[in-house]
Amino acid sequence: MTGADTRGTTERVLTLLGLLQQRRVWTGPELADRLGVTPRTVRRDVDRLRTLGYPVQASQGVGGGYQLGPGQDLPPLLLDDEEAIATAVALLAGAGGASAGEAALRALTKLDRVLPTRLRHEVRMLAGAVDSFGGGRPPVDPEVLMTLARACRDEVEAGFDYPSGSGVRRRRVEPYRLVASDRRWYLLAYDLDRDDWRSFRLDRMTEVAARTWRFHRRTAPDAATYVQEGVSARVYPYQARFLVHASADTVRVQIPASAAVVRRRGAECCEVVSGAASLDSVLMHVLLLGHDFEVLDPPELRRRCGELAQRLQSAGSVISPLPDLAGA
Q1: Per the CB 3.0–4.6 Å rule, which of 52, 79, 141, 187 could disulfide with 84?
Q2: Which residues lie closer than 8 Å to 220 by C-beta, 6 or more apart?
Q3: Contact 189, 176 (CB under 8 A)
Q4: Is 75 exposed, middle or buried (0-12, 13-18, 19+ CB in 10 A)?
Q5: In sequence order, what are the beta bridge partners of 177?
Q6: What single string gives the DSSP state of each residue in 23-51?
Q7: pLDDT tens per residue, range 129-161
Q8: DSSP labels for 64-96?
Q9: d(CA 245, CA 235)
Q10: Phi, psi of 116 (to 5 degrees)
Q11: Domain shared by 25 and 87, yes or no
């Protein structure tokens, strides 16, 4: 068989696989007509697919034909151009959602490995026509999302401009993981200039680019925990820890993940770690949860609780007479 014949057979077998993935059952004559070959050639191509590990089943009689059977070892789906574009655009839209964002992005990076370069421009154009409503995260440029996702996947350095107290500066990082919160996308990365782990908001990045320099992965903190602790506590001038006498599941419903870290401490207790601009503010938020609690840290917050308790007790026990306004 010549090289041209081999390529022709390969393309035909791939087309056959695509047809089997489109519909539950095909008869032999239907497949032969679609492929422009004889039923005997269809049978040979079906055998080739079986050799490759695809469980193609054949049944006789009325309603019978060829069908692709289920199996845990089923090789990846075959998508034509239109299907690949539609899938990528749908995943880009899903990556901006509030619940399935990370799963959509993981699937998108897998698709990106096999998406032909000629289709990427169409994906970007169509993704620009996708919008959403009803809250959720602020929009993030899909190209930024994909550039950083590829850099994480391929373990190559990335660079971007990022605002700081002294203005916008260029950051050089080893990107590790993208993390989606209920409000924003974050990148956990090793900052090469600061020689430490940092988290960055994607919506604040500009001029994002992946570099060609590869890196060896370092021992990294848990991405979701690091980012959550950063946005809920470390960014604030004051941090506090509380032991709350309610289950972690109950408290997590009451507090957004971006506002506090809730750690399970038994069936009916949990630890809450949060930050705020003042200790009174974080204390008030925990007080309004409506559960008994204890202050674990810092010590000055325990003292502040005593002061406020005396003031509240005094306010509740002393009733001042109202002024007589009748003769006013």
Answers
A1: 79
A2: 176, 177, 188, 190, 197
A3: yes
A4: exposed
A5: 188
A6: SS-B-HHHHHHHHTS-HHHHHHHHHHHHH
A7: 544 444 455 667 777 888 888 888 888 999 999
A8: -EEEE---TTPPPPP--HHHHHHHHHHHHHHHT
A9: 26
A10: -60, 145
A11: no
Do both 102 and 219 map to the same domain? yes
The runs of H, that is alpha helices, within 100-141 are 101-114, 117-127
Give the ranges where the chain is alpha helix by DSSP (H): 3-22, 28-35, 39-51, 81-95, 101-114, 117-127, 142-154, 223-229, 248-254, 279-287, 299-317
Domain count, the chain: 3
The stretches in the chain having pLDDT less than 50 are 3, 72, 98, 130-135
Burial of 159: CB neighbours in 10 Å, binned 0-12, 13-18, 19+: middle
Q: Identify residue 281 by its one-letter amino acid code.
A: S
Answer whether residue 328 is part of any domain: no
Question: What distance in Å separates the CA atoms of residue 37 and residue 48, rounded to the nearest whole number?
Answer: 15
Q: How far is CA 5 from CA 11, 41, 306, in A?
A: 10, 14, 86
What CATH number does the domain containing 61 carry? 1.10.10.10
Q: What is the mean pLDDT of the chain?
A: 80
Are 53 and 73 contacting, i.e. CB atoms less than 8 angstroms apart? Answer: yes
Q: Angle 101-114/142-154 helices, nearest 10 degrees? A: 70
Rounded Cα distance between 322 and 99, Å, is 54
Residue ranges making up the domain that contains 53: 7-68
21-66 pLDDT, tens digit each: 777 788 999 999 999 999 999 999 999 888 877 888 888 877 678 9
Tell me how far apart the 2 most distant CA atoms of the chain are, in Å. 114
